[in-house]
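can u do me a favor
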């Protein structure tokens, strides 16, 4: 936590904290003995190991906690949605991001869950 605080202080000191999307992502989740015969991540292919802790911080985002399971596939669509919906991109980049997010395999964490793909 102290390291994250130091990093955020650097953004404040540089005057960029009000225009920066900060994302912290764990490299893996954790499956336990009740999920699979082996604990840990190396030999355990249980889905729990693919669910990652993830935090987004942007000055235009309200504090919200989502009780959903996120995987690494959720990262890019969520970033694109956040950049588009906060007005952080110019018109050309907004159009490109909006087009890209529709074709990406992952599910954005700020849109309702899609059960079918178009």
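np, heres the sequence
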């Amino acid at each position: 936590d102290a390291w994250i605080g130091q990093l955020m202080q650097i953004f404040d000191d540089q005057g960029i904290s009000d225009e920066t999307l900060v994302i912290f992502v764990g490299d893996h989740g954790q499956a336990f003995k009740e999920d699979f015969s082996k604990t840990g991540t190396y030999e355990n292919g249980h889905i729990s190991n693919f669910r990652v802790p993830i935090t987004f911080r942007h000055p235009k985002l309200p504090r919200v906690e989502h009780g959903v399971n996120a995987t690494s596939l959720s990262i890019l669509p969520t970033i694109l949605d956040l950049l588009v919906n906060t007005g952080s991109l110019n018109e050309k980049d907004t159009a490109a991001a909006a087009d890209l997010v529709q074709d990406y395999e992952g599910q954005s964490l700020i849109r309702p869950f899609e059960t079918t793909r178009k």
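The chain has a mean pLDDT of 76. hope that helps!!
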